[in-house]
Amino acid sequence: MKRLSIITSFLFITHILFAQQHTINGYIVDRQTGEPLIGAAILDKTTNHGTVTNAYGFYTLTLPQDSINLQCSYVGYSTAYHSFFLNQDTLLTVSLETNTELQEVTVTAAHKQFGAEAAQMSAVSVPVTQIKLMPAFLGETDVIKTLQLLPGVQGGTEGSAGMYVRGGGPDENLLLLDGVPVYNINHALGFFSVFDADAIKNVTLYKGSFPAHFGGRLSSVVDVRLNDGNMYKFKGKASIGLISSKFHLEGPLWKGHTSFSISGRRTYYDILLQPILASLSATNADLKRLNAGYYFWDVNAKISHKFSDKDKLFATFYMGDDVVYANIKTRDYNSNDFSAEERLNLRMQWGNIVAALRWNHIVNSQLFLNTSVNYTQYRYNTKVGMEAIYKNKVSNENQQFSVGYNSGIHDVTGKAELDYTPSPNHNLRFGTTYTFHIYRPGVQSLMTKMVMDETTEKIDTTFGDLPINAHETALYAEDEMTLGQYVKMNAGLHYSTMTVDGKFYHSLQPRLSGRIKLYDDLSVKAGYAYMTQYIHLLSNNNVSLPSDLWVPIAKQIKPMKTHQVSLGIFYDLRDWVSFSVEGYYKAMDNLLEYKDGASFLSSSSAWTEKVCQGKGWSYGVELLVQRSIGNTTGWIGYTWSRTMRQFDREGQMLNQGRPFPAKYDRIHDLSITVSHRFASWLDVSASWVFSTGNCATLATQQYMQADVFGDIYTSLDYIEERNNFRFENYHRLDLAANFHYDGKRVPQINHTWSISVYNVYNQKNPFLMYPGYNNGQQVLQKLTLFPVMPTVTYSLSF
Amino acid sequence: MKYKHFVFLLFFLLTSCVTEVEFEAKDTEPQLVVNAIAEVGQPLNVSLTYSTPIFSNKTNEYGYTIIKDAEVTLTINGYSEQLSYNSFSRQYESTHIIQYSDSLNLTVITRQKTASASIRVIDEAVTIDKTDFITDNRLGVFDYTEEHIVNYWYMYATLGITFSDPSDKNNYYLADYSGNLYTTGTNDTIKTTVEWFNFEQGLSENSSELDLSDNFSSTDNRVFADDIYNGKTIRITKDAYFFVYRTYSDEKDSQMTVDSLIIDYSLYNIDRQLYLYLQTANSNQLSSGFLNLFAEPVQVYTNIEGGMGIFASMARTTKRERIF
Prior knowledge:
The structure holds 2 protein chains of 2 kinds. By secondary structure, chain A is mainly β. Chain A contains 6 helices and 49 strands.
């Protein structure tokens, strides 16, 4: 009996000791700035257990009680090591030192997060440093344009910032700025995006296998995180380009506790145009005053406050507008007896406002809480006013007329998310979101006023669609599981609801992705995601217009949904180059297309009458070879894909019910992007893109209409198939060189001259194609917007 | 031309980047076009043409090649008839008078192409229950109980056809109105012109007005289906504007009297093929051209195998009314 007690006690103590585990958690930050690093890797070399920091730079790692050797790494930083005996839960904030000698750095972060090691597939993180090195379009490097160079992502028309991911439309992308959706990402009709590269810390694109915490859109998630601001030192940057200037400032408000980051930019093409307009006005006898132009501006601001190691508060604000204006005053007639004057005022203004208040709290060593209250708004306002003043000796007459149109969307969101790490093999994430939407599809205003001497007649009224209120909720849970040495899996469920017009919609969406490690650097991954989308963007596919309307589902319009499966092989060649090949198949249902003959310019019928719903499918293979470290960085991305649509429902038929290629069915899409640092004072980058041309519907013949009422000579256009015509193949080379040097008078100031050439060999890529005439012969013509365009930008930073 | 500098600048900016695109000729091979509407009580006429390539180097004409030497066979309820070409009407003509429920097959063989189509002629035509002509003379210009001696004369009116839609099947309709104003008092030196402008058409059922102006946005688009009106009493209306005026060749004057107005109210029962064809043909015309770049192009419905065009049937009911 005594022997039995000893054995039992021994086993019990052994079990306790063996099962004794402790959790290390905290943030991984930049040593110089205190900026949390997203996707930084932390690995215990003893047990080979590791993890990566989340979107807030937080990590949690549960390990057995023992001596541990932690290795912390991140792209562009020196690896940090920490060794100690782990005998209790430990809060450990790791600071990493930036390292300019990148080729000597051992980096495991990249493939921990999305490479061969991770369970996540169909996701790419693009270093912001890489984005800033890219050739600039009119002096502006752009996040979205950089993402367009990745496999599986296609741009819209020439120069546009639209995104078409794996056969999805531009409204199927969830674009998040610090976790808050941004509805209109375009400036200048899509030639620039609202994301200012100087204000950004991290950009991650998800094209499939979406984790359960994302929802609401079908095709992609672009997660853009802003800089928190330097906690220790003031830093700044200012740039002057050919058409725009911008600045970025960051620094401590309370050293080590509170920081700020603010950046802003404005184009000044309208200001440059003023002398030309003034000379036009001066030489035209009819014009008294002429003032017109276009500009956009935006500002990003963020304040971060650290209450303690466990509590942080963030306030994010973005606001930006595009403005088109024209003020014209004419002098029709002027004599001693009579004078007439006419004025025309036009103003179109559209833009976003985004605000977020976020609180990060470490509840305990295994539980991390992120709560936020968000507001996002997109508004489009336009007003055209005319005034005519007639005077003679006996009477005065003043006529005023103005029409306006206002539309927009407002969202208020409350969000709570929890990261829970009960054991080294499980990382649970769950949360809930509630959003109150107010859609304002369009309100017109009309004002007329006529003053004749002492008599005044006035009409001032508004009319149009009533606001639509909608309630959207989401509940999700996911678990990232490590199942032995070779298998890792992320399984989750996302449940969403939408209540609009008294009708309730809901959807349960399973998500699954996993990897099997074949070797240390080689793995096979597979994923499945079911997504539902309750809102639509009413837009013409060719151009991005500010008048594009976000509308919720309606009784006649069902929610869009997709099922996507993907399979891929991932290989990381000794932290030097990563390779991936992914194949996907995506089935889409309840997609929207304009009906035959419908035009978004027409306002004679409700939007629900102009569209029809059908299905679609896309499939393809994507190849990505990426190098993120060293003096030479960049990637080669190639996609072979097909995207088809079929609208065969009764009363909603297109192409007589037969399948047809989508407008952006580009079979081949290749991009090569390279940046090389020749010396500390010179880096050069180049990108070359090639893709199959877009599809368009083109009538090739005309024929006689049947004679029912004697209309025998009426002609009809013969269109064999919808999207029967392909534009020419698209290709373009862009180059950029950045020259850096330190100031002689003020050594703390660094100067950079950036020279970019867009479309180096002046390829005339089509923006628009249309029938025209040449010597009386009907021909097909194309409009090219951007020939070779060199730009110079000067910037200084301190 | 106050803004000509703007226009010039915009034009320069746009045209400086406009180039012509080489278009592959293989896409422009002419197609055989067969148009044949079988109307109950009438013989069938078939029109055969070739389509014209839009982007052709050989021609800039919009003329169509009329096919005169084709072999055209119409099979009616199993009996075949070879159609002969009439050089005056430029159509192939049948001697058979189309009857309700006829089974028809049309085969066309030309030197290059063969096309065919089969239909069953519609089973019946609905009758017009009532017609109406409503005018409120709100402009006070015309009172047709009195003679008018004016240089011009105009009137607004709403014309209506009321009928009962059979509930046992899907029906498709087409409404048409034609009228004649008879005037006296004209002579060699005075030309009297009568214009009849068509305005928005409407559709109502059971006296409850329904706004379907979109369906009737064009004067040519007068077709509709009974999808949501099945089995109901339907009233189709059309707003019209009558305008009569005189132009003078010398200073002589004479009096003009509007004597009478006679309207033919016609209601066509059309088959589904003709309905789809007319709907899409109308949208095709509205969406073509440079000004409609943003409109989605429209494919015109066809049931011709090996070609395009339409082979369909209809039956007409007409009621003539003398308004005054």
